Amino acid sequence: MDSDSSIDQLFRSDIKPRDLPPCDVEHLEEILMVLKTSHPTVRSKVLTDLVDKDGAYIVKLLDLFDVSELDADKAVLHQLFDIFYAILEMCNRGLIEILLSENNFISVVGVFGYNPGLIREMDFRTALEGDGGFHEVVPITDRSVVERVHMNFRIQVVKDNVLSRALPDGCVLLLDHMINENNFYILSYISETEDYWKATKELVFSTEKRMDGLG
Q1: What phi and psi values does residue 54 have, to the nearest 5 degrees?
Q2: Nearest to 58 by CA among 43, 46, 72
Q3: Which of 35, 36, 57, 99 has the most CB atoms around its CB within 10 Å?
């Protein structure tokens, strides 16, 4: 009986797609409720709206986060954590790519630092915004490969540090798949690009360049 009832709920015809609520503090609870709705009709519309215009709605949420952080409004910051966690829980590759894009990544990490389940906030941004940066001993000329390197780094920051004990299993599997796929393209570039191999060989056999490149 319970199983039949669940199936009936899943295919209810009276549930219609709905627009995402306005992106403001007053509607945060409603936004979270919509994101957590599992009905496929609602979920499909939500996914479409979230990725629309390169994630414009997500950018608005991040702008709201910036303002709330300046105001030190912990209640709102915790709500925003729940909202972005719910977005991750949707396990959608397009959404993850928007969240971890170059323009959004640092702010998203900031949001996940306000986990209401932790005793205190976690500051991951300071280290990421430091002087470490990305250095190429042998330059990669294919910028799409460079972006895959960056994406793998961002994925691992979230998976292994920022949310290391909090990610749902489905999301972990998706992130692992994305890492493996990126690794395939990165390794293919390294193994198949003659200029890269020549530059690597020159670096290895030149003491001066080797010390300069690895110093």
Answers
A1: 55, 35
A2: 46
A3: 99
Which residue type occupies 7?
A: I
62 in Cβ contact with 112 (< 8 Å): no
Task: Count the domains in the chain.
Answer: 2
Q: Indicate whether 113 and 146 sit together in one domain.
A: no
Structural domain of 36: 15-118
CB contact burial 178-203 (16+ within 10 A = b; e otherwise):
bbeebeeebeebeeebeebeebeeee
Tens place of pLDDT per residue across the chain (215 aa): 455 554 445 445 556 677 899 999 999 999 999 998 867 778 888 999 999 999 999 999 999 999 999 998 999 999 999 999 999 999 999 999 999 999 999 999 999 999 998 878 888 888 887 656 777 888 899 999 999 999 999 999 999 999 988 888 899 999 999 999 999 999 999 989 999 888 888 877 876 655 555 54
